[in-house]
Sequence to fold (312 residues):
Amino acid sequence: MAFSVRGKTAIVTGAGSGINLCFVKLLLENGCNCVLADLGLRPEAQALVDKYTTSSPRAVFQQTDVTDWLQLERMFDVAEKEFGEIDIVCPGAGIYEPPFSSFWYPPGSPESRDSPAGSRYMQLDINLVHPIRTTQLAVSRFANAKTPKSILHISSIAGQNAAMMTPIYVATKHAINGFVRSLVRLDEIGIRVTAVAPGFIKTPLWTENPDKMRVIVENKDVWVTPEEVAEVMLALVEQDAVNGAMLSDDKESGEKIPIAGGTILEVSKSVRAVAAFNDPGPGERAGNHLGDPRAAEEGFLKLVRSPSWGKL
Fold:
């Protein structure tokens, strides 16, 4: 299953910023064509696309609302038209429980964009439904391919933990872990489905949200960088147990991690495989813990005790 990304083609959703942008940058630097699918591009992402517009490899931006299944299909059509065969798909777009789609700000509240008549949470559509549908679309194209293919998901340490501040986000990441493990046997037909489970990443999802930044203890908390996660993502595509398993940076074990279908790698300031059963959890490893959420949790408890909470 191991293969070099050089000369291959990847689709990455949510590629306009953060982890996914860093992954695209790494893929391009290693000779892989990329389709960046997102609602828009931050300046640094636009600069990357401009740099690789006419070169080889190439980067193409496809404006995509990942909650729209027709736009997801169009994303694949564009990739095939531009580059022919697709080899790597990363349904990486996600949101970290902002007020506009949150358990604590129910549909119909001033902060929420989820309509009480819409019968859906935007966060579930983006974080869970879109990765599932994108995987279906990828498998439909990969099932009879003659070369190895890779589908790489973005989970989180939230897929192992509970967090009162972000219960819907936590639910989506637990679901992604189960989804990835459920597709392990696709490895037998040359389709590897894996995931990374990052700790706390310093991306705009955090730095541009004052509510989230309030829990940060500056000069004490340790961030994981998007570049560190991207390196592990590349390893999940290019390595396996036969052709050089990735060496864990976890000083507690130092063991080699066999990479195959269903692998979920936690990425903090160390790297470890997340077991399906009896896993010890992310614990206090550097990059897996930020600040003290208790003040924010008290705020949510006060919020739900207000007479108007959840009522239209």
About this structure: The longest strand covers residues 191-198. Residues 122-142 form the longest helix (21 residues). The CA atoms of residues 11 and 35 lie 5 Å apart.
